[in-house]
Amino acid sequence: MKQKAIFLDRDGVINIEKEYLYKIEDFEFIDGVIESLKYLQKLGYKLFVITNQSGIGRGYYTKEDFLKLTHWMLDTLDEYGVRIEQVEYCPHTPDAGCRCRKPDTLMIENILQNHKIDLDNSWLIGDKKSDIECANKALIKNTIQVQSGHGFDNSIAKHVIDSLHLDYLKDIIKS
Question: Would the pTM of this model clear 0.90, i.e. be above it?
Fold first, then answer.
């Protein structure tokens, strides 16, 4: 049986956007995000993170720095009862020509190899146009663009909300 899923960008969606974030002490969850993730799990969604991390390719931090922060984030979320099933990341710079960097879909494809996902009933939540373009390329029809990361004027997402706060989310995702 296929499972419905939520694909989440990290920076600007789960945590406050800070350029090239890799230190635990600089990581701040966006207000209300933990409650929203718990809500989504209660509705039966599996949670996944897909994140571009060009700071690795640029030499601003290492893969190990990223993994340390990721493990801390996952452990912290777990303490609140939130389970992230899998984290996929692209360490490349925008000009590297890789297939993993959003808007390309390799991160989602990697998740689909490990999990039976019903894309028709799944969602992608991001803060950039490239996140929504990734969803469209991966045939994920349900998209939300949050304004808590990179502000924008014109969105191609199905829904636009201020942040991943439950007050905004519960009116869009109900089952």
Answer: yes
